[in-house]
Amino acid sequence: MKIGIDKLHFASSHLYVDMAELATARNEAPDKYLIGIGQSKMAVIPPSQDAVTLAANAAAPMLTAADIKAIDLLIVATESGVDNSKAAAIYVAKLLGLDRRLRTIEMKEACYAATAGVKLAQDHVHVHPEKKALVIGTDIARYGLHTPGEPTQGGGAMAMLISADPQVLALADDSVLLSQDVMDFWRPLYHTTALVDGKYSSNIYIDYFQDVFKTYLEEQQTTIEAFKALTFHLPYTKMGLKALRSVLPMATTTQQQALSTHFEHARQLNREVGNLYTGSLYLSLLSLLLTDPELMTDDLIGLFSYGSGAEGEFYTGRLQANYQQGLDLGLPQRLARRRRVSVTEYEMLFNGQLALNADDQTIACDDDPHRFVLTGQRHEQRQYQDREN
Fold first, then answer.
1. Which of these is catalytic: 106, 109, 111, 311?
2. Which residues form the Hydroxymethylglutaryl-coenzyme A synthase N-terminal domain (predicted)?
3. Is 365 among the residues known to form the active site?
4. What is the pLDDT of residues 349-370, one digit of tens each?
5. 280-291 vs 113-127: helix axis angle to the nearest 10?
6. pLDDT in tens, 157-204
7. Catalytic entry in 233, 262, 265, 370
8. pLDDT score at 389
9. Nearest to 195 by CA among 259, 148, 157
10. CATH 3.40.47.10 in the chain, residue ranges
11. Which string of DSSP letters, residue by residue, matches 242-300?
């Protein structure tokens, strides 16, 4: 029985800042961001969106009435949670109108947690093949204005429906895992932005990839030639390119070029959005599937998931014959319709997020076109609105 990703859908902001303009405002050469980091645009998340609304906006458009009836497991993976106790999944389930007979949990391990959710969902569907699981990676990457990490911010949510007989990607049971206590990235409870040792974190990322990838090849008694494409967690797209280049000498000259070409497709949409934390790997997968014309049924796709702190996993999936039917086909057009904001407006929106205090607050959301929005806080409870109800 095949189990895997049946549908993928993405949501982010309707706003972005141009990375060349941001570089100029920060007295940096534009190519430092455009080439050195590998980012062209960065999603600017308005105060009317948070991890909950992004998750609901990502999932709702792809779910049919039959999907909603079959879903009995909802996993929301995030490091941008809105409550230290109550799972974001509870809020998302209500907004989506999911059945009450539902297991709802929130998962956290930096950028890795969505992969843990996918693998748990895979096991769940294996035991209950008539059911479906919804996994959503949703985050807002914040490092602060005028910080070294600022150009690697962004935000959005990737929703994935896991089922038997999947339309998109049949997942294998061949994961290689690695977990160690590493202080490359963390956010203490008293911080609203992350702390990161950037160079150290980059080195750990590549070390983890080489470890799990080479171990996979040994355990499966295969070679890099078995893969049509390798996809990566992309906190910024140059990071994935560095990881890919670290193993390209294992391939023939012809396949080195092919893998590099496929990677360019796999980072195309991430270049336009920025860092998604938990959703980054899966936006890269969606980017590959939407933009690469050379993919074929049964192609083997490798997926490298990484979360600082640190945890990594490499696993694989086989492309299915009707994979296009499960994709968010309108995403490139939606990204093209976004509104460009100035650096000044971006800074204002960054500083205008819901304050972390007990006060009643109201958030203006008239300019936000999304179905689900955050309208404020009342009696220390976040107020969400579904504009279709």
1. 111
2. 3-165
3. no
4. 999 999 989 999 999 999 999 9
5. 70
6. 999 999 999 999 999 999 999 999 998 888 888 888 888 777 888 899
7. 233
8. 84
9. 148
10. 3-170+328-386, 171-321
11. HHHHHHGGGS-HHHHHHHHHHHHHHTTTGGGT---GGGHHHHHHHHHHHH-TT--TT-E
Any idea which architecture 171-321 has in CATH? 3-Layer(aba) Sandwich (3.40)
Report DSSP state, residue 2.
-
Q: Is 14 a catalytic residue?
A: no
Question: In the annotation, is 233 catalytic?
Answer: yes
User: Which of 226, 215, 218, 206 shows the shortest CA–CA distance to 302?
Assistant: 226
Distance (Å, whole) CA 74 – CA 322: 25
Buried b (16+ CB within 10 A) or exposed e, 359-386: eebebebeebebbbbbbbbeeeebbbbe
Give the DSSP letter string of 347-361: HHHHHTSPPSSSS-E
Residue 30 CA to residue 329 CA, distance in Å, equals 31
Of 9, 79, 265, 313, the catalytic one is 79
CATH class of 3-170+328-386: alpha beta
Coil, strand or helix at 324: helix
The amino acid at residue 279 is: G
